[in-house]
Amino acid sequence: MRSAYYFFILIFLWSFNLAAQRNIQTINSAWEFSSEKNEKTKVVNIPHTWNAEDAFRDGKEYFRGKGTYKKSLFVPQEWQQKRAFLKFEGSNQITTVYVNEEKVGEHRGGYTGFVFDLSEALNYGEANQLRIVVDNAHNTDIPPLDADFNFYGGIYRDLQLILTNQIHFELENEATGNMLIKTPEVSAEKAQITFETKIVNHSKVSKDLHVSVDIFNPEKRKIESLSKKVQLSSAETKSINFSKVITDPDLWSPDSPKLYEAVAKISEENSKEILDEIDSKFGLRWFEVSTEKGFVLNGKPIKLIGANRHQDFEGLGNALPNSIHRSDYKTIKEMGASVIRTAHYPQDPEVYKICDELGLLVWTEVPVINDVTDTNAYHDVSLKMQREQILQFYNHPSIVMWGLMNEIFIRLVFNNQMTEEEKEAKIRTTVALAEKLEKETKRLDPDRLSVMALHENKLYNESGIADIPDVIGWNLYFGWYSPGLESFGEFLDEQHKRYPNRPLFISEYGPGADSRIQTDEPKPWDYSEAYQLKLHRSYINQVQERDYVFGMTAWNFADFGSSFRQDSRPYINQKGLVNIDRSKKDIYHYYQARLLEEPFIYIAGKNYKNRYPKDANDSLRITVFSNAEEVKLEVDNTEFTSEVEDGIAIFELSLQEGNHELIATDDTVSHSREIEVKFRKNLVAEIDQYAILVNVGTHVNFTDESTGETWISDQEYKAGSFGYVGGSVYQKKQQ
Fold first, then answer.
1. Which site from 137, 178, 285, 545 is most exposed, i.e. has the minimal number of CB atoms within 10 Å?
2. 246 and 118 in one domain?
């Protein structure tokens, strides 16, 4: 096996060396991996995490420590005239790279990219040993310190080997070589654009160079070529800037995500040979936000409705191929969403490209969450994370908000061991960091919005931290962690009355929901899909009624790993609109009914096939989602009609035992589903043939995924039947 592996590497390097001026190759395959927990070596492919299984098996005891990746690379002698770089898209969370046991670099932080120059450490004309050590152990100087998601360890995004000429666009910086494309002034008539990059001369002589930027419109037609002559001394790095005004620009928006492209090139003066080339897509749009107009994009108001998204997937942890990222965001777009929050960290570079292409507005943030350490090191890493995020993703028109913090006082509020003096000190360092993050954000990008997500607590206003960013996001869980669905709107109105000029965004909301659990009598904390629907319906209505709330993102697009949770599915946060395997819950389709413009209809209850009324006189509730004004439901050749309110039509039907086909239509589209009805009164009569499976003490039905059996909701005992006698059902929270 080893000889075949080396043969592959030699062939790869040979083809690599024959390609054009800049060569980029992923080196994801066949790494030798071991860890502190298991020193036995195995071969893995990147993206890779060592916590894809144990975080869902061992809970909060999942392994957090060091993992080591090794690979042998043959480096041709010709590379001595080149520069070789290793580019990471993400590696969690301290990454140290060694070439032939010489340390070439270390990066702190698990959610942004970074680049190391390997050139000086390579031995040319022979095999080189590459060793990468990644450490995801808890570190008080690196955010996140604590959060409701897993801190997966490993090189969990693509890894690239990049070969350039001695003269090239700078790569080893916080922007990872990104050319910054700024659009400080955009209107329907014209757009002011600037292009900023740096070039480096690693050769031993000065060079007279020609640097150019070609601009292509959304139809891929070249519309401008900008150029200048540059003299670059040996070992010199120089900034290169261009400016251009485009008239009658094609504007980017969710409905029309039009993208321009810029291609930058370096050549020697009076030579057609290209020494280096980089490119970037960009978009032209402008936006503003206020309590009077809400969010206004290109002069048109738009209520932002969408979801948050974590980056893990069943069986993979956070080590996802780009195909899953693309599938996720396509699914979000198909829901009718206009916005996504990449909670609680910058996501894969592919994600922002996808959002540009699909037309999804983005709130992206750094993982400064739940708590802050009062050290210069923690503050410095937090600021570096924000710089890396902004500089690496600056060109994406989809991004409209840079996030600073999330629920940063939540651990302080619930910590009963801290003294008042310690709490005051924690507040001071947190506010100080927020001010630094805001200042750095505006220094790098004064045109986008800064934002911070808060939880339901007065400390954010009392400390003044809520006054620092441009806009505020509230994470609100009335009807779940706090009582009363109507309390949601009351809280917002009270905040708006106190701070009338503060634009508000609902950054998180939603209850846990398990697709195995069904009921027609939803209650808080029953984990039923019906209660998930009830809460989301209420929240959407209350936000739509309030113009000063400019948007909302449901928590969460998909169920995700959270090692300390003991919900109905252990170690998983179940507030997703879809399951962790991306199978859709009913609530996903409800958002389609509320958000899509094209005709839509869907019969809820994909996971509610088996129904158990008392008898033929006990009606069943059939729920249909639609954006029509009225829908029809055909059952056993009988047609019923119902008006649609808030995207929902309710049918109360009395059906006989047996299988029934349901067909819903609005006369333009239709949807069908089968259900099976079995009367409870007949279960006792058939007990000699079938066991009665009762979900004792609860009002919900539970369907076992492995057997297909349904454990039916309990009932009060009556003679000749079954059920409980006396007692009362415990209810954790009120609605």
1. 545
2. no
Bridge partners (DSSP) of residue 232 are: 207
User: Residues 231, 275: one domain?
Assistant: yes
How far does Cα 347 stand from its chain's mean position? Answer: 6
pLDDT for the residue numbered 685? 80
What tens digit of pLDDT does each residue of 108-167 get? 999 999 999 999 999 999 999 999 999 999 999 999 999 999 999 999 999 999 999 999
Compute φ and ψ for 510, nearest 5 degrees: 135, 150
Residues 198 and 213: beta-carbon distance below 8 Å: no
Per-residue confidence (pLDDT) for residue 719, from 0 to 100: 85
Domain-terminating residue out of 598, 618, 638: 598
Two tokens at 291?
A: 């309590």
pLDDT for position 733: 62
Kindly state the average pLDDT of the residues 649-668.
Answer: 95
Mean pLDDT of 468-496: 96
Count of other CB atoms within 10 angstroms of residue 241: 14
Mean of the pLDDT values across residues 682-708?
Answer: 88
Residue 224: count of CB within 10 angstroms of its CB: 15
Domain boundary among 660, 676, 692: 676
Report yes or no on 304 lying in a domain: no
Q: Which residues contact 711 (CB under 8 A, 6 or more apart)?
A: 693, 694, 695, 701, 702, 703, 704
Mean pLDDT in residue range 215-232: 96
CATH number of the domain at 149, please. 2.60.120.260
Quote the crossing angle between the two packed helices 349-358 and 322-334, to the nearest 10°: 30
| H/E stretch holding 423 | helix 420-444
Tell me the per-residue pLDDT of 615-635, one tens digit each, with 9 for 90 and over. Answer: 888 999 999 999 999 999 999
- Going by the DSSP 8-state scheme, the letter that residue 197 receives in this structure is E
254 and 268, same domain (yes or no): yes
665: its two tokens: 């239509």
Question: Alpha helix (H) ranges present in 469-577?
Answer: 486-498, 529-544
pTM for the model stands at 0.93
What CA–CA distance (Å, rounded) separates 262 from 661? Answer: 55
Q: Are residues 368 and 254 in the same domain?
A: no
Task: Give 61's pLDDT tier (boundaries 50, 70, 90).
Answer: very high
The residue range of the domain holding 76 is 2-166
Which are the contacts of 446, defined by CB distance < 8 A and separation ≥ 6?
Answer: none
Residue 290, domain member (yes or no): no
For residue 705, the 8-state DSSP code is T
Mean pLDDT of the 451-468 span: 97
DSSP state of 6: H
**Do 247 and 328 share a domain, yes or no?**
no
Number of H helices, E strands in the chain: 11, 43
Q: CB neighbours of 317 closer than 8 A, spacing ≥ 6?
A: 49, 51, 52, 55, 150, 152, 154, 156, 561
* Dist CA 642 CA 71 (whole Å): 65
340 and 361, same domain (yes or no): yes
Pairing of the two strands 449-455 and 399-406: parallel
Are 209 and 335 contained in the same domain? Answer: no
Q: Which amino acid is at 57?
A: R
Q: Sign (positive/negative) of CA torsion 584, 587, 588, 593?
A: positive
**Cα distance between residue 151 and residue 144, in whole Å:** 8
301 in a structural domain: no
Q: Is residue 30 part of a domain?
A: yes
**Separation of alpha carbons 654 and 647, rounded Å:** 23
**Rounded to an integer, what distance in angstroms lies between the CA atom of residue 48 and that of residue 716?**
52
Cis omega (within 30 of 0) on the bond before 344?
yes
